[in-house]
Amino acid sequence: MSDQLTRRLALLGDEAHRALLTQGLRGVERETLRVDPTGHLAHTPHPVGTGSALTNAQITTDYAEALMEFITPAETDITHVVARLDAIHRFVYTKLGSEMIWSQSMPCQLPSEAEIEIANYGTSNIGMLKHVYRRGLALRYGKAMQCIAGIHYNYSLPEKLWPLLLAADGVPEERRAPLRDIQSESYIATIRNFRRYSWLLMYLFGASPALSKDFLRGRQHNLQPLSDDTLYLPYATSLRMSDLGYQNDAQAGLTPHENSLESYVRTLMGAVNRPYPPYAALGTKKDGEWIQLNANVLQIENEYYSTIRPKRVINTGERPVQALCNRGVQYIEVRCLDVDPFEPVGISIETGRFLDAFLLFCALDESPYINEMQSQVHARNFLRTVKEGRNPALTLTRGEEEVPLREWAAELLDRIRPVAMLLDQDRDDEAHMQSLAFQDAKVADPSKTPSARVLEEIKAAGSFQAFGLRMTEQHAAHFRDSPLMPVELEEFEEMAAASLAEQKKIEESDTISFDEFVERYNCSRLCGDVRE
After folding, report:
1. Which end of the chain has the smaller Cβ count within 10 Å, N or C?
2. Residue 133 CB: number of other CB atoms within 10 A?
3. 398 DSSP β-pair partners
4. Does an H or E element contain 396, and which?
5. Distance (Å, rounded) from C-alpha 31 to C-alpha 107?
6. In whole angstroms, what is the distance from residue 426 CA to residue 216 CA?
7. Which residues form the signal peptide (predicted)?
8. Quick one: DSSP state of residue 74?
9. Per residue, what are the HEC states of 287-301?
10. What is the pLDDT of residues 262-310, one digit of tens each?
11. The whole model's pTM is what?
12. Radius of gyration over alpha carbons of the chain, in Å?
């Protein structure tokens, strides 16, 4: 262990400070496609009974109209998060009729591009802005990409923790920055460590080693046929996170530097404000209809697809980067997790326990700045793992040497172990250590990884589609066979009704045209101290 990690673990292990770790928050966003009883994409609108996709804080849509997104409140324990996610699923199933929610990250067999509907959010200016943004994504990446699903894990530590750690590191109080800046710098340092080690998450939790053949839409690839309608790579862990995902030439080389919040914001804002000639050639309107918000490298900052993001809850009318500039980083969003097809809600409590230990390790350990060459190495290690993670001969680059993935993974788990022990001390159980033991077993035996298990199940079922439909049906039965308690159902019904009323209120309050609204949005001053 590094001296810093040892020192910080000792500090937090002290009885006077141990309770701080119970005050951190985590939440989950789970994306999932609606499918019909045959396992094909649903062509119905977002179920009105679940409320407004624009204003319901817990049940919305992502890119495609059929791609639902379930968002839990932030909780102090992953068990509460998973319980809420489970309740959301049970409520949604009361509104789906014969439809189901797809069990995989990679989509079911898809219809033609023209038949994939982009998400709709009503007639308000903000609703149309969200819709047109997605039109731009379809134009830039294709609609099939808008049907990919994932798990996002939101994570924060209590504000009181950061100055305490600085004091333990020997930084005098008079030399410390304001709390906002300390917290932002600490989360950015956490993100740097995540970049170094996130390949481990892809080995342990990647669950998309294969996909439906029609997903590629004629794109070039190096995948191998597994059956007539299924393509795969023998040692892949997560094709979703490979170069088959949300990437294009415009974003090539766009790597925000996470050595400071300012450099991260500056890079994104440069892309948001820099025209891209091929997009400019398409224009922003076609036959009088908006087709993209602008012709820049990124329409908005969230178009940059990253495995992790610094985040801040935004205010009404505020852009994400404005929130970061104005009030600093509040939490981090891990975006690289596949949906676990063996779990009805897409993620297990055991996975959440490990993520908490992993992210706390990233927050406590030393985190030197990352230069351009190191950034490329981290990206290459990640890509190697998503494509070849279970290859016994696979090596990753660590410093000046190549080391076997499984050797480095075992060493990294050993470094995380004291963090898991610390998290268990205040709970007076071994939940985090037990989760770590599950990960040890996967490193020792790659056949125990989700990607290996998925591949075996696909082979047994005969195709990706057949396996996906079987698990989807099992999960649907799980939720339908044990409905919500009446009081829980009433809560969700009230939330849905309130969101529909809120959408109507927003639509009735618009006073300017959509064209003017987009112009104001595109011209909004993002950060007063950041220059393009």
Report:
1. C
2. 22
3. 401
4. strand 395-398
5. 11
6. 48
7. none
8. P
9. CCEECCCCCECCCCH
10. 989 988 888 899 999 999 999 999 999 999 999 999 999 889 888 999 9
11. 0.96
12. 23
